[in-house]
Specification:
InterPro entries: Glyco_trans_4-like_N. Pfam families: Glyco_trans_1_4, Glyco_transf_4. This is Glycosyltransferase involved in cell wall bisynthesis. Residues 28-132 form the Glycosyltransferase subfamily 4-like N-terminal domain. The protein is an alpha/beta fold. The chain contains 18 helices and 10 strands. The strands form 2 sheets. It has a 6-stranded parallel β-sheet with strand order 7-6-5-8-9-10, sandwiched between helices. A 4-stranded parallel β-sheet has the order 1-2-3-4, with helices on both faces. Helix 1 (3-15) packs antiparallel against helix 3, helix 3 packs parallel to helix 4 (59-69) and helix 8 (181-192) packs across helix 15 (310-322).
């Protein structure tokens, strides 16, 4: 059976109602068994030199194949699987803890997206400190799949027909639960009536959210918008191609990176939207989540605010808007930051790790 047929077979088995109750109770274990049943033999037949697990759910399979082939095992931990949003049910969390405790020490190299997560994994599982690869875009465009393309969309301000005299602040990423977007609407609404702000930006605040949308979250945001007087422009913008997002947001004044530390993975998070803003050269207004706050302060990228305090969010926004020129980087400094944080810089660390195997 070919690999595509095996993928299709895995999809059918995962959806089969006979396994539904078992999967709900023992999701991690059932996915592991299904993946191994579908893929393990064919992957082992390939006799790979390196097996790279790109997600926690595939780690046991990757470890089994690596062991059978005497291959090196690489694991990419995108977030803290045991502290993700929404929080895992107790039984599933214990399954994930068990699998990570069993398989992480077997990995020859582990990558993750931030220093706090790296430290947590090192301490919890008594492993070598994972290598940090920031979730950054490339500094130059790159080829993408045809289905990802969004043609003739290169300037968000032009697309939204926002005129001079309006302050445009953008959020990149899905409009979904627990992102702090509701707090952002409240905080920006509070800032919009500031007299000094209105004098400098007579056309007010426009807040654009770029990405896929969860209808329930959109409804909640729109309800808050009405409640707080509809004194800001609110825009829900369709997703932009991943290789075009940096250029697309360059005509915004600033980017906002909210967040609610409901789970440790969010508290330690280093989201791609942060690095998109850096490469676009836009000042950042961000929730003071642990590592994100430090990166913004250390590199003078913008202003942080207490995550669940909308008054602080309003004050942070006004600090950037009223002192805007001080937050715009010189071309030389911008280029240095791009070189430091772009994917090409992360790629060098990844390749060095592979060469060491």
């Amino acid at each position: 059976m070919g690999i595509l047929s095996r993928i299709q077979r895995f999809g059918y088995s995962a959806a089969d109602s006979r396994f539904k109750k078992f999967s709900l109770l023992f999701h991690t274990v059932s996915c592991d068994l299904s993946l191994r049943m579908v893929f393990q033999k064919e992957m082992t037949d390939w006799q790979p030199d390196i097996v790279h697990s790109h997600d926690g759910i595939s780690l046991p399979l990757a470890a089994k194949v690596a062991e059978a082939c005497n291959a090196k095992l690489v694991f990419d931990s995108h977030e803290l699987e045991t502290h993700r949003n929404p929080p895992l049910p107790w039984l599933r969390k214990m399954q994930v803890v068990h699998l990570e405790k069993k398989y992480l020490p077997k990995a020859d190299v582990i990558f993750t997206v931030g220093h706090k997560i790296a430290g947590y994994l090192e301490k919890t599982y008594k492993i070598a400190r994972p290598i940090v690869l920031f979730n950054s875009p490339r500094k130059k465009s790159w080829p993408i799949l045809e289905r990802q393309m969004t043609l003739d969309r290169s300037d968000i301000r032009d697309e939204l027909m926002i005129r001079d005299g309006a302050f445009l602040i953008v959020h990149t990423g899905n409009v979904t639960f627990n992102r702090g977007l509701e707090q952002a609407v409240i905080g920006l609404s509070k800032a919009a009536d500031n007299a000094d702000f209105m004098e400098k930006y007579p056309r007010g605040i426009h807040f654009a959210m770029i990405g896929n949308r969860v209808p329930a979250v959109v409804n909640r945001i729109e309800a808050l918008h009405r409640k707080y007087g509809e004194n800001i422009g609110l825009h829900f913008v369709p997703p932009i191609a991943p290789n075009g997002i940096v250029d697309y947001i360059k005509t915004a004044h600033a980017c906002i990176s909210p967040g609610i530390p409901l789970v440790l993975s969010y508290e330690f998070g280093m989201p791609n939207k942060l690095f998109e803003a850096i490469l676009a050269g836009r000042p950042i207004v961000a929730a003071d989540l642990v590592e994100k706050k430090k990166l913004i302060a250390d590199n003078q990228l913008g202003v942080s605010y207490e995550a669940d305090n909308t008054d602080e969010l309003a004050a942070a926004f006004l600090e950037v808007a009223l002192n805007y020129d001080t937050y715009i980087r010189s071309p030389e400094r911008h280029e240095a930051l791009v070189e430091k944080f772009c994917w090409e810089a992360q790629e060098k660390k990844l390749l060095e790790a592979y060469k060491s195997l």
